[in-house]
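Entry 12.
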Amino acid sequence: MLVINYSMLGGVYFASLVNFATASLLTLVFMFGIWVVQGMIGNKMLQLYPSHRQALKRVVVFTSINLTLVAMLITFLCWLYGNFHLLGFEFTFTSWLRCLIASAIITIVNQAIYETESSFRRIRVSQLEAEQLKKEQLQTQFDSLKEQVNPHFLFNSLNSLSSLIATDPEKAEEFVEEMSRVYRYLLRSNEEQLTTLQREIEFVSSYNLLLKTRFGEGFRPEVSVAEPFRDCLLPPMTLQLLIENAVKHNIVDPDMPLTVRVFTEEGKLIVSNNLQKKNKTVISNKVGLSNIIAKYRLLNYPDIEVSETADEFRVVLPLIKNKD
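Predicted 3D structure (tokens):
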């Protein structure tokens, strides 16, 4: 506004407070109308050319319309000032052209600022939408992984119960009681993304009793977790899946006992078992270990470490600090 008035009136614009206020007020009234119209046109341009690929076309069309509107406004202002001899202004081609060039430069600069700000705003909105979509996709995948655990665990539990009913009805009754405790935890934890290590340990204690009932001295669990780490977090069912994985792929027999150790070392949780693979290939749907790896990745936590030697299979799990 100041530049337009100065290009039109020169030093007269700043000669007195009356001149400055009069010219500024007149120009402001007309410029406000132009700003409103420009805003409406800008929104329409975004609707017509929303894609980034159409940005150049949108800028060219919008700038052309803006320059036309501003040229019309400047022409009218020059005519108004000259026709009524306002502030000593005379409408000549030179004065009109000078005002037109000044207003065109201002319009192009304003257009560039508007397009830059608008582009950053659209990019930010796109990023937020992409992040939200990614979060929803990860949540869907995570829920899908959790749903795979229930039928898998139930299938193995019912197989164990079926074997016990035929061989030892009393142990079968004890097995059902322990299985009910396990499923109470399972149903509760299925709605959570993380649980405390203490709760996991309590849960696998019941789960280990189920395995001890089935395998006797063939299965030897050892849990030794330092107290300060028991409040740390990890995905629910992690320990159960690792223990189940060890039992599934190794010989479990009193003559060849399977020892599964759960302990902490250097701030990490370690689950290991002695390696004595079954001779017969075990059919696996890969829900166990791959499920745990996927959970940590979906939650954006450090990957777990898996290693195998001739005598031992080991999984190192990062413990998540409990902020509460």
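Annotation: The mean pLDDT is 81. DSSP finds eight helices and seven strands in the chain.
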